[in-house]
Design brief:
The structure holds two protein chains of two kinds. By secondary structure, chain A is mainly beta. In chain A, about 5% of the residues lie in helices and about 15% in strands. Chain A starts with 7 loop residues before the first strand and ends in a 14-residue tail after the last helix. Classes of the chains: A mainly beta, B mainly beta.
Chain lengths: ~550, ~230
């Protein structure tokens, strides 16, 4: 049946500035209904404040809308307004393209001064004839169009890309199509499944690789998209994806300095950070390798220049010495003038990590990259999954490198956008430095991996239990924590208790019940019950917890 | 360790030194229970007699001069199934758990660790130029998915599903002495869990064989041996 919220994109901790209407609402669903029937304007999004039982319907959202971070609100955006691509003839296109394929500005649909027509919002109330955006109210075969502001041209089509890219550029690392069979016909295994093949390409570890469903993808920089197969006898196979006939995006032109992980670096530095000359990419001596310019046509593998064709931390190269296969290169950051870069600067760039912050953490320059609830940070130069303006360009002094926790906007502590699409940002898993404490603390700056990975027995009241038992001690099946059926429990959800490991329907102890983990049951007659989970042996209770915290190596 | 550094003393308190009766260091290993040690099977090639080995626990320096050092005899050797490079050693008497001697956690049975996960390998192998040649060293590594590891020109198809690859995070500068039997541990929630045993080629030069035994493939076997012995 689905929920009314299915057609919305949910983002926690977000706010957009738009014309708005305020309502009282107990749930996000109630607010969605308000949005659907909004009379004062076309409702494209709404903000829900659960603490205040209040919501705002909003007139504006699009991929270009600036989003601000907040603490208590959840933003719901209608997905249809976020798509800047068309499906089929584009009758449902509600994007903001406002120029024709020749670049001429469109005439507003309500405006008939230049070109008169019957295509008005009044005559076509469901065709989305807003502003001067390209639309297809008459189901034209050639897709969305508009009346132009050129007196000589009454109307023209707009160049709107197709939503489903079914061809691939380069090695298909950006392929986002839906092919899910391999070249010899095997059906692909879902990326989030571990059967029939166990694997380490966990979607959460590759947030930028779009490992959805069982679609062919290329998360490891292979020659082309592939997938694990559902055949127990065939681990993986390439998929047959056609190459796009259009050239790759112009961003391939690249940088002459280091931006992000340097995948677009196209400069001419050809020496490693320890001073070894680089091997030519087209050569197999002294090191045999497969990063040839032929295998990787879009990676700029020219001469022996430092490059990052495989998503490493920085540009690198195979070296010309036998004993050192590869090494990173020192490339000046784009925020600095190359001519001004000194050895001292480079040394500072790779300085030791700081794992606590002082005051508000404005000068925190460490490498922590996980949030307080264990979510991985989104890279500052990435707009996925969250688009934002906290970029290196806008905040040049904030050291917005990689996905490291920072405080560019004078917040109360270092924070980052998360790689979880539904959680826009969070504060980082960092502690404030105590007075006199060295900047390098003993706490490693990383957080949890995956729930369910370790403790299969319980310690104390079992609040840290993350095992996969999902039956109560009387054998009843547990209800999923994210479900409100058959038992409504809005107080204890994965959203309200993000650190309690409320995954699937596993037994947990989010309220620290002294008798241990429990769950809501799927039996309508029994709301909840304890689970029978063995107690950890005494030595297990302390396993893996050193009294003296290890510290990362400093370069 | 490759491109590693000296560790904070006793920050890897499960690390043990497997030695001969004349106290010569042979391999690394880990304490997984007060009376059980996990190591690589090939470390035990020279003898199958338990009492030819000794286990040193609670040490930071290779000389083992710290007051925290505990020494135990080995009373049982259990080789891994199907010729896997994994072995369990039963101590003659349980180690005393202390700040310097704490067991590492084991992963859940057959749990796959995600590619890109950051982990640490530790051992007393030489670290050229990084100082601390006689103390326990560490290096941080990123897990590589087997499919990607198998696609490399040197390991083409040779990595099995019960093995695990990882590569240095800070870049390769040299190939240095390996530390067989030692652990690859990864932080899960607030505990270190051992996902790998250092087994084969390890470093920047082309590895000759996969580098780690995948511990989660043998969790059931480990627990079964400990339960029945």
């Amino acid at each position: 049946q689905g929920s009314i919220l299915d057609s919305y994109k949910k983002t926690e901790g977000a706010w957009i500035n738009a014309h708005q209407q305020s309502y009282k609402a107990n749930t996000a669903e109630e607010c969605a209904v308000r949005c659907e029937v909004e009379k004062k304007f076309t409702c494209r999004a709404f903000l829900f404040f659960s603490k205040n039982e209040w919501c705002l319907t909003l007139s504006r959202t699009s991929k270009r809308t600036q989003i601000f971070k907040t603490i208590n609100s959840v933003l719901y955006e209608k997905k249809v307004y976020l798509l800047e691509c068309k499906k089929g003839k584009g009758e449902d296109y509600r994007g903001t393209k406002d120029r024709t394929q020749k670049g001429v500005l469109c005439q507003k649909w309500v405006d008939s001064a230049l070109h008169k027509s019957n295509f008005t919002p009044e005559n076509y109330p469901h065709a989305g004839l807003e502003e001067n955006y390209c639309r297809n109210p008459n189901g034209n075969e050639n897709g969305p169009w508009c009346f132009t502001t050129d007196p000589a041209t009454r109307l023209d089509y707009c160049s709107i890309p197709e939503c489903e890219v079914e061809c691939m550029q380069c090695n298909g690392e950006d392929y986002s199509g839906k092919v899910s069979r391999t070249e010899s016909g095997f059906e692909c295994q879902r990326w989030d499944a571990q059967e029939p093949h166990m694997h380490g390409f966990l979607p959460k570890n590759f947030p930028e690789k779009d490992l959805k469903m069982n679609f062919c993808r290329n998360p490891d920089g292979d020659l082309r998209p592939w997938c694990f197969t559902t055949s127990p006898n065939k681990l993986w196979e390439y998929c047959d994806i056609p190459r796009c006939t259009t050239p790759p995006p112009t961003s391939q032109l690249g940088y002459q300095c280091l931006s992000g992980n340097g995948k677009d670096y196209r400069g001419k530095i050809a020496i490693t950070e320890s001073g070894i000359a680089c091997q030519h990419w087209s050569s197999q001596l002294p090191h045999r390798h497969r990063h040839s310019p032929e295998n990787y046509p879009c990676k700029g593998l020219d001469e022996n220049y430092c490059r990052n064709p495989d998503g490493k931390k920085r540009p690198w190269c195979y070296t010309t010495t036998n004993t050192t296969r590869w090494q990173y290169c020192s490339i000046p950051q784009c925020s600095q003038s190359a001519s001004q870069t000194t050895d001292e600067d480079i040394s500072r760039q790779s300085a030791s990590p700081e794992e606590c912050y002082r005051e508000r953490g404005l000068d925190y320059r460490g490498t922590a990259s996980f949030t307080i609830t264990g979510k991985k940070c989104q890279a500052w130069n990435s707009m996925l999954p969250h688009r934002h303006n906290r970029t290196e360009k806008n905040f040049p002094k904030a050291d917005l490198r990689e996905n490291y926790c920072r405080n560019p906007d004078n917040d109360t502590a270092p924070w980052c956008y998360t790689t979880v699409p539904t959680v826009r940002w969070e504060y980082c898993n960092l502690q404030k430095c105590h007075y006199g404490e060295p900047l390098v603390s003993l706490e490693p700056p990383f957080s949890s991996l995956e729930p369910g990975t370790e403790m299969t027995c319980i310690i104390g009241n079992g609040k840290d239990y993350r095992g996969a038992v999902a039956k109560t001690n009387s054998g009843r099946t547990c209800q999923e924590w994210s479900s409100q059926e058959p038992h409504h429990h809005s107080y204890l959800t994965p959203e309200t208790h993000p650190r309690s490991g409320l995954d699937k329907n596993y037994c947990r102890n989010p309220d620290e019940d002294i008798n241990g983990p429990w769950c809501y049951t799927t039996d309508p007659q029994k709301v909840w019950e304890y689970c029978e989970i063995p107690k950890c042996a005494p030595f297990q209770q302390e396993c893996g917890k050193p009294k003296r915290k290890p510290r990362r190596c400093q370069r | 360790a490759v491109n590693g550094c000296a560790s904070v003393p006793h920050s890897w308190p499960w690390q043990i030194s497997l030695r001969t009766r004349t106290n010569t260091h042979l391999c690394g290993g880990t304490l997984i229970d007060p009376q059980w040690i996990l190591t690589a099977a090939h470390c035990l090639e020279r003898s199958s007699v338990p009492y030819t080995y000794r286990i040193f626990l609670g040490l930071h320096t290779a000389k083992a001069v710290e007051p925290s050092v505990q020494v135990r005899e080995v009373k049982g050797i259990f080789q891994g199934p199907f010729g896997a490079d994994i072995a369990l050693l039963k101590l003659s008497s349980p180690a005393m758990i202390a700040d310097q001697v704490i067991p590492v956690c084991l992963p859940e049975d057959n749990l796959m660790i995600g590619s890109r996960t950051e982990c640490f390998a530790t051992g007393w192998g030489q670290v050229k130029g990084a100082g601390g040649d006689n103390v326990l060293k560490q290096t941080n590594l990123a897990v590589i998915e087997n499919k990607a590891c198998n696609s490399s020109e040197f390991l083409n198809g040779r990595v099995k599903k019960f093995e695990l690859c990882a590569e240095p995070i800070n870049g390769c500068t040299d190939t240095l002495q390996v530390e067989s039997g030692g652990p690859l541990v990864c932080l899960v929630q607030d505990r270190f869990v051992q996902y790998g045993i250092i087994s084969g080629g390890f470093g920047c030069a082309p590895p000759k064989k996969p580098v780690f035994v995948r511990v989660s493939s043998y969790t059931s076997w480990i627990k079964n041996i400990m339960r029945t012995n």
